[in-house]
Amino acid sequence: MQDTVTTSALLDPSHSSVSTQDKSSTGGHTSSTSPQLSKPSITPVPAKSRNPHPRANIRRMRRIIAEDPEWSLAIVPLLTELCIQHIIRNFQKNPILKQMLPEHQQKVLNHLSPDLPLAVTANLIDNENYWLRCCMHRWPVCHVAHHGGSWKRMFFERHLENLLKHFIPGTTDPAVILDLLPLCRNYVRRVHVDQFLPPVQLPAQLRPGDQSDSGSEGEMEEPTVDHYQLGDLVAGLSHLEELDLVYDVKDCGMNFEWNLFLFTYRDCLSLAAAIKACHTLKIFKLTRSKVDDDKARIIIRSLLDHPVLEELDLSQNLIGDRGARGAAKLLSHSRLRVLNLANNQVLAINTTLTSINLSCNHIGLDGGKQLLEGMSDNKTLLEFDLRLSDVAQESEYLIGQALYANQEAARQRALNPSHFMSTITANGPENSVG
Amino acid sequence: MDGEKKTYGGCEGPDALYVKLILSDGHEFIVKKERALTSGTIKAMLSGPGQFAEKEADEVHFREIPSHVPSKVYALCMYFMYKVRYTNSSTEIPEFPVAPEIALELLMAANFLDC
User: Fold this and answer.
1) What is each CA distance from A422 to A375, A412, A428, B99, in whole angstroms?
2) Major place of localization (chain B) (predicted)?
3) pLDDT value of position B14
4) Where are the strands (E) in A40-177, listed by range?
5) Angle at which helices A364-376 and A393-413 pack, to 10 degrees?
6) Mean pLDDT in residue range A385-405
7) Any domain includes B13
8) Which is nearest to A232 in space by CA: A198, A195, A190, A185?
9) Which of A55, A80, A83 sits opposite B92 (nearest CB)?
10) Given A334, A347, B61, B77, which residue has the most CB atoms within 10 angstroms?
11) CATH code of the domain covering residue B100
12) What Cα–Cα distance (Å) separates residue B101 from each residue in A84, A86, A227, B71?
């Protein structure tokens, strides 16, 4: 029996490197009994596997590692192991997976690095465990339920969203996103982008005679503030079902400027064209993007008679009554199930609408409160049918009060009282407020 | 090996030194028995209970392994030598080189031979 004490002293300087590299499947785990080695790595870490440092074999001969299914007594690894190691190491250059037996495939998948380029792995690997490791490696918090329970889908959706969020028009190469499309088109179902960066603003060149007031600056910069145009992206994703966009900039810190948040006319046109062309889109949300009436109408016009759209969310924008009218038209021309126009300017600035019928809708408590807020400034609404709309009793009562005030004012203004309906009431499900 | 004047033991008999591996297309490879026993499959074929014809003639027929990839057979033989050389040895064990183009086939063969 050779004396390993002296040799172990020689091995020490190299051991710290050995213990971190020592992750091959033939039992290269560090021992917890040896004080010089770093902490034992019990969980198999997906790293490049290679044969352990040859001089570590002496220590390996004297170790027993409990519950390590890959530890074996043999010092010389089996040829199957050697081949698998080789395949794992060279996977990038030579991706062999499907031709192997299932147990070998499983071993290779368990040890593949999550950093492999997507061009190699995207269409080859369907194993959810591998994509789970990739997701965990990249993002600390992962809610796979938001992505339909599929780790592969989650990885591609988040990766794409990340690229879109950091895309700077004019600076970033659009090929970065377009190259990803053929790899991810089968897996991405939902795109949720809550930040669109504007192009980098060069210092404005003042034309002679220009004052630097906000009007002229707005005109000069308007053509250059367009964000990433989504036409190619949406056309390239053949299974896209949900598009959730916010034209917003996060983390601007001290660089806050209002013109960072412009959803430009050109953006709007290209977005409208993109969603019109996308025949698999079921849910479309464009919120918090300062969408005004004109832009809303452009978008709504492109959604008329859309074959599959079911949910449209334009809440927290600046849509007024013209936009709302467009939305109402949309309701009758499409298969829309859910329309959300919350927190817009619909009722506040309205001066022509006299009758709204929102009965038998599930407006709910919040909707009721918002309707009430809109009603507080409204002076022309006379009829507001909210039957079976689940609006809270207090909201109904207050809306009723506002209506009554409007009706009174109208009656006072009228030259001919017969113009106005005399039995106008806002009826709640239980009580009628006169 | 060709230039040396050596006489080799035969392949017949229970204490033969060499064993003949016959692949599916008829090619025969003669390997030292001790090294061929690295492979669990070969070992089972040669030392199993009585009825195998292989046991008498020390020949092993492999119907599934073709030899059209000669480098694969060469790699297998190299592996046998590598294994025998370094098992129970205290010297440094170098890495066994695997050529990338034969990796998959070698894996299949190794899986079959259980080595």
Assistant:
1) 20, 13, 18, 94
2) nucleus
3) 56
4) none
5) 30
6) 79
7) no
8) A185
9) A55
10) A347
11) 3.30.710.10
12) 13, 11, 48, 10
CA distance A101 to chain B (A): 8
Task: Report if residue B97 sits inside a domain.
Answer: yes
Residue A232: the pLDDT is 83
Interval A91-107 mean pLDDT: 87
CA-nearest residue to A2 within chain B is B90
ipTM over 0.85: no
pLDDT tens digits along B41-79: 888 877 766 555 555 667 777 777 666 667 777 888 888
The span from the CA of B64 to the CA of A325, in Å, is: 75
Joined tokens for residue A43? 């969980």
pLDDT at A80 over 50: yes
Compute the distance between CA of residue A113 and CA of residue A130 in angstroms, rounded to an integer: 9
Q: Which of B79, B95, B115 comes nearest A51 by C-beta?
A: B95
Q: Within a 10 A sphere around the Cβ of A47, how many other Cβ atoms?
A: 17
**B79 lies in some domain:** yes
pTM of the predicted model, to two decimals? 0.65
- Minimum Cα–Cα distance from A77: chain B residue: B83
Phi, psi of A89 (to 5 degrees): -65, -40
In terms of Cβ atoms closer than 10 Å to its own Cβ (0-12, 13-18, 19+), residue A145 is exposed
Q: Provide the domain count of chain B.
A: 1
- What's residue A209's pLDDT? 39
Structural domain range at position B24: 18-113
Q: Would the CB atoms of A93 and B100 count as touching at under 8 Å? A: yes
User: Does residue B42 belong to any structural domain of this protein?
Assistant: yes
Give the CB-side neighbour count of residue A209, counting CA atoms within 13 A: 0
Strands A283-286 and B28-32: unpaired
